[in-house]
Amino acid sequence: NHPSAIEPYQGAATGVGGIIRDIFTMGARPIASLNSLRFGTLDKPRQRYLFEGAVAGIGGYGNCLGVPTVGGEVYFEEAYEGNCLINAMSIGLMREEKLMRAVGSGPGNHVLVIGSTTGRDGIGGASVLASQEFDERAEDKRPAVQVGDPFEEKLLIEACLELLDKGLLVALGDCGAAGLTSSISEMASRGGVGIDIDASLVPQREEAMKPFEIMVSESQERMVAVVAPAQLDDVMAVCAKWGLRSTVIGSITDTGRFTVRMGDEVVADMPADKLAHDAPEYDPAMARPAYLDEVQAFDAAALATTTDMAVLGTTLLRVLASPNVCSRHWIWEQYDHQVMDNTVVLPGSDAAVIRIGDTGRGETTTRAIAASSDCNGRYCYLDPYRGAQ
């Protein structure tokens, strides 16, 4: 999650929020979260700032959701000094037959935006921040970092799961990278339909927002739903029950086009496929990195050995004191890992174990899920092909 290299707290927090939305958008209840973190070496003040801020952001957002953070991992290497990595993971439970997809259908059906208002935070977040190196001018990119509201997301979890359980939605998707533009165009393209929306109807929290800003804003805690006219009142009633905004911003059409209006003025009109699944593909030049020959020629058998217990003891203590080996207690003690009361084996072991309990069919089970995060970036450094395997 690259925004963390600019604003570590909010960047990490929105990483948690985004992955949680991916889970309940499909109709699954989130039951656990994990993370995988990479930073530069801790002797650099900025790296320590990024590390502490990201950990606080994961805890600050995740602890408010009622979803336990049960595990993760962290490593510190010079390679990550230019761009730290915050990878978020979430686990959800649902009955397979209740899977919901973000596939638009039914010309005449309403398109709604549910949840938070739209602001200028996060505009261009994906294009500005993804896969970039950050230097002393990184602060200039801070406005592209989204600002999350975990309490709004908690309401979204409960409202969306209730809407799906009652069968009130035709389709449901969340607003991720590129905001409404990506979620709506992908929904239309997957269903082979068109969508016509009025951007002026999108609830906004800032004045004089332009159509472009409304459409690409990556403001968090927003969902896009397709609702049949007969179900509209029931959907809005459920949203109101949970204190959430629900606004009709457009409708499904049979044109296959993604049309954006600002009141009576058409400001964008194009085939939905062009944005979603028929975009240009890059074919960058590739070359084998020069360092691979050197590192792959390394012979471990050539290393010096010793039986001197004093040397071995000192070496062992140095290894145990390394930030890449020492206890992670300081990290996971900041996370609520027991909310929901289903975490049977707590962080600090090889894997967390989460009780399943309710099967979703009015029955209970004694089965559980073991979850752990285990990534080793050095594998990819030494041999990218083997590392990816």
Could you provide a short overview of the structure?
By secondary structure, this protein is an alpha+beta fold.
Labels describing this entry:
single chain; 389 residues; alpha+beta; 60s Ribosomal Protein L30, Chain: A; Phosphoribosyl-aminoimidazole Synthetase, Chain A, domain 2; 2 domains; seven-stranded mixed sheet; 13 helices; globular
The CATH homologous superfamily of the largest domain is termed PurM-like C-terminal domain
Largest sheet: 7 strands, mixed
Number of helices, counting only DSSP H or I runs of 4 residues or more: 13
Q: Whole-Å distance between the termini?
A: 22 Å
* Count of domains: 2
Q: Give me the CATH fold name of the largest domain.
A: Phosphoribosyl-aminoimidazole Synthetase, Chain A, domain 2
Shape: globular
Total number of strands: 13
Series of secondary-structure elements, N-terminal to C-terminal = HEHEEEHHEHEHEHEEEHHHHEEEHH
Biggest sheet strand order reads 5-7-4-8-6-9-10
Write up what this structure looks like:
The chain is of the alpha+beta class and 389 residues long. It folds into two domains: 1-97 and 324-377, PurM-like, N-terminal domain (60s Ribosomal Protein L30, Chain: A), CATH 3.30.1330.10; 100-278, Phosphoribosyl-aminoimidazole Synthetase, Chain A, domain 2. It is built from 13 helices and 13 strands. It has a seven-stranded mixed sheet with strand order 5-7-4-8-6-9-10. Strand 9 (257-262) and strand 10 (265-271) form a beta hairpin. Helix 1 packs parallel to helix 2, helix 1 runs parallel beside helix 4 and helix 4 packs antiparallel against helix 7 (232-241). The longest helix is centred in the first third of the chain and has 18 residues, at 45-62. It is globular. It starts with 7 loop residues before the first helix and ends with a helix. 37% of the residues are buried.
